[in-house]
Write a structure and sequence with these properties.
Shape of chain A: globular
Distance between the termini of chain A: 16 Å
Strand order of the largest sheet of chain B: 6-5-7-1-8-11-4-12
Shape of chain B: globular
Largest sheet of chain B: 8 strands, mixed
Distance between the termini of chain B: 19 Å
Oligomer: heterodimer
Largest interface: A-B, 41 and 36 residues
Number of strands of chain B: 16
Radius of gyration of chain B: 22 Å
Number of helices of chain B: 12
């Protein structure tokens, strides 16, 4: 990474809350964000302001943790553990549609780069693709196993579109990734990143971890997977954070990157610098952090503590302000010289 | 399995004690009782099982579902048990005041803490003494604990009752059978039986004209060991029908629960099946997403299997742990140790079906109705198994009650 590609982000303002904030989407060219909460609410807030007031969107959209938030031209689309997707009017902040999307707990919502499609993933182990405006089902993508190798329920945690929108990747608990062609909706590649999953067969006899985030590089050639490394004591998130880079077309693992000892826990979300200068990952254990990766050198170049476990974040167009939501807090980070 | 006659009771040590106290009805009541304890080692979350609080800030993401008992809701992770609450009762008001694994386990297994110079017997040892048969050819107390975490802090103990009522511990998940029960390979079956016959012949001749209790005890001990040596088949589930295997499921916990049913059917009075490890300081919801459906399936399978065999009227199933989990959700989306307001459950024999005892507040942070401690729950299990909780043992001349003075069972959940 060139020396002048600064990653010196600092927390400029954080806001304490009683709830857990799981998902966020930013309105373009602003610090205005919509975020999903553990109280089932979807909130409208201007995080560019030092004294923002969060306004709850109107309507009974969700009855459980809101784990996915995405923006389309007219709507905010949210998904929750209550298995439902909800459409909210961006102008009025009112609920306009609510529909059951999955038969089990919904883990994430992603909008396609052109904003025309919404992908939702859930623990029924299918990814469903929806028309972003009408809410009609476009395609159901089934291919992830419903059970882990030890016959426990698996979980489908994450999905992401490639920057050109031609691919959609989905990732599950045991580290299996499927890459789908968004024209034919056929799987074009499958990858495995089992290093993100720990099954303890002897001491505790259950599992922890899983693939929690996916991100294509701006050129679409590299796919990063995010989660946590192998854990000795699975009572806690006590293992180094883990990222793995794949040349997905070749099905080849390029590099595994682990955070240092003071940066443990899950990689919950990743975003690339618009020009691909760096990748930033956010997550945590009891606490939180941001980790910056030089994708050319394939190495971690900076780790920085966050005021909370980060569940998701958004980056502005100029890549100098970052809006993060997480455990009992929201935070605005700004790039300093 | 029908109720044993009074003649059969004479061979039951617990029944002899009860008859001596004039409790014939109670002896009849307890004559064929058996108990299976599903020990949820590490501490299962009451909020993700028996006492859900959906919508509360502490409630977590899972919904509550209605059950076949009107007005009673449990976690959506337990759909099978939601259809079997008419064979169950819930205790939602445990405040056991000990949030340590070792202390909590000892408290729940013994109903009280040991005294400096007195080790109390645990639940299994008391039930082995009260429900076991002197001439039994099966063990009285079997303890499955095959995961390693927490095994040391949840040790079973016969206390002052001594090793006769101690557990047979099964720790090796890959080789589940009684330890050291196989005859030596160097001895043929014929020689083995001939030796037993010779020993019996010599013993009988020696006993002629002698009326010593120790001689009878000696003979009973040999008969018991001989019986135990033929118990290996209890651990072999290959003969179970596929439909029964499917009922329980393929996991290790399921296999051990099926073995527990086989043992109970063969006359073992108490089996503890420990499912470790529930200690979800991180990722509580994913952990419970794995473990609660397994518990739901296994518990429902036990109820159905016992019912289908006509045994549910005689067998009590208990689920409990050393404590519950905090309503507060930590930064790792975990829940920590919490002994202040948590739940346990009783199923099958001796209970008032569908009863729910106790209540916690809207966030599950404290008990607001019918608070009880470990002693009351221990006494309730004894009574549900047909044992008078007021009974006393004697250590020399010192009377030792089964539960501490003043402790009473929860009569509202007893049949």
């Amino acid at each position: 990474m060139p020396d002048n590609d600064n990653t010196n982000f600092k927390v400029k303002k954080d806001h304490g809350r009683g709830d857990i904030c799981f998902s966020v989407a930013r309105v373009p060219d602003s610090g205005r964000c919509y975020f999903g909460s553990s109280d089932g609410g979807v909130y409208d807030i201007d995080l560019a302001s030092d004294k923002p007031g969060a306004k709850r969107c109107e309507g009974d959209g969700h009855s459980s943790y809101v784990t996915g938030t995405a923006l389309t031209a007219k709507h905010i689309v949210t998904g929750a553990w209550d298995r439902h997707l909800a459409w909210w009017d961006r102008e009025t902040g009112k609920l306009i549609r609510r529909q059951q999307a999955h038969t089990k707990w919904l883990r994430g919502v992603e909008a396609s780069p052109d904003g025309k499609l919404i992908a939702s993933v859930a623990d029924d182990m299918v990814c469903r693709v929806w028309n972003a405006e009408t809410g009609k089902l476009v395609k159901e993508l089934a291919g992830h196993k419903t059970k882990t190798p030890t016959d426990y329920p698996s979980m489908l945690f994450c999905a992401c579109f490639s920057p050109d929108g031609k691919l959609l990747a989905t990732g599950d608990k045991v580290g299996h990734v499927i890459i789908w062609d968004t024209k034919s909706w056929k799987p074009v590649k499958a990858l495995d990143a089992p290093g993100h999953y720990t099954w303890d067969p002897k001491q505790r006899r259950h599992s922890i971890g899983g693939l929690r985030s996916l991100r294509f590089s701006p050129d679409g050639k590299t796919l990063f997977t995010g989660g946590i490394g192998k854990i000795g004591n699975i009572d806690h998130l006590g293992a180094p954070t883990r990222l793995e880079a794949f040349d997905w077309a070749q099905g080849k693992s390029l590099k595994v990157l682990n955070g240092s000892d003071k940066f443990k826990g899950l990689v919950e979300h990743m975003i690339f610098h618009p020009e691909g200068k760096w990748l930033v990952a956010g997550g945590g254990d009891h606490g939180g952090w941001l980790i910056f990766v030089d994708p050319m050198a394939m190495k971690i170049v900076r780790e920085v503590k966050a005021p909370m476990h980060i569940h998701e974040f958004a980056l502005n167009e100029t890549a100098d302000t970052l809006y993060a939501v997480g455990h009992n807090k929201l935070a605005r980070w700004e790039l300093e010289p | 399995m029908g109720t044993m006659g009074a003649v059969g009771l004479l061979g039951t040590s617990g029944a002899v004690n009860a008859l001596a106290e004039g409790g014939l009805n109670r002896a009849l009541k307890s004559s064929n009782k058996r108990v299976i304890l599903l020990w949820l080692a590490g501490g299962a979350s009451q909020l993700e099982t028996w006492d859900p609080k959906p919508g509360a800030p502490t409630g977590g993401p899972f919904a509550a579902i209605p059950t076949d008992v009107p007005g009673t809701h449990i976690s959506e992770l337990m759909p099978r048990m939601a259809k079997r609450m008419n064979h169950s009762c819930l205790v939602r008001s445990l405040n056991t005041r000990d949030g340590g694994h070792g202390g909590g386990a000892q408290l729940m297994m013994r109903g009280r803490k040991d005294e400096p110079n007195l080790k109390y017997p645990d639940l299994g040892a008391v039930l082995a003494k009260e429900l076991g048969r002197m001439d039994s050819q099966v063990p009285d107390y079997v303890n499955f604990y095959t995961s390693t975490e927490g095994r040391g802090s949840a040790k079973v103990s016969p206390g002052f009752l001594g090793a006769r009522f101690g557990a047979i511990n099964l720790h090796d998940g890959a080789k589940l059978t009684l330890p050291d029960i196989r005859k030596l390979e160097s001895i043929t079956q014929g020689d083995h039986e001939a030796r037993a016959n010779l020993r019996e012949f010599l013993s009988r001749r020696f006993e002629q004209g002698r009326e010593l209790a120790s001689l009878k005890s000696h003979a009973a001990a040999y008969a018991r060991v001989h019986g135990l040596m033929s118990c290996e088949k209890l651990f072999d589930v290959s003969g179970e029908s596929q439909s029964v295997k499917d009922l329980y499921g393929p996991t290790q916990f399921a296999q051990q629960a099926m073995m527990a049913r086989r043992m109970i059917e063969a006359g073992v009075p108490f089996v503890r099946v420990s499912r470790a490890w529930w200690d979800s300081h991180g990722q509580n919801f994913e952990t419970h997403q794995e473990l609660v459906p397994e518990l739901d399936r296994v518990l429902a399978a036990l109820i159905d299997d016992l019912k289908q065999r006509g045994m549910l009227e005689d067998v009590l199933i208990v689920t409990m742990a050393e404590f519950g989990r905090t309503p507060k959700i930590n930064g790792s989306l975990g829940r920590d140790h919490f002994a202040t307001a948590w739940s346990a459950s009783l199923h099958g024999s001796g209970i008032k079906s569908g009863a729910v005892f106790g209540k916690t507040d809207a966030k599950g942070e404290r008990v607001v109705e019918d608070e009880i401690g470990a002693g009351e729950f221990f006494a309730t299990i004894l009574e549900a198994a047909g044992i008078d909780h007021r009974k006393e043992y004697h250590l020399g001349s010192r009377p030792i009650p089964l539960v501490n003075p003043g402790i009473k069972p929860i009569t509202k959940v007893l049949a």
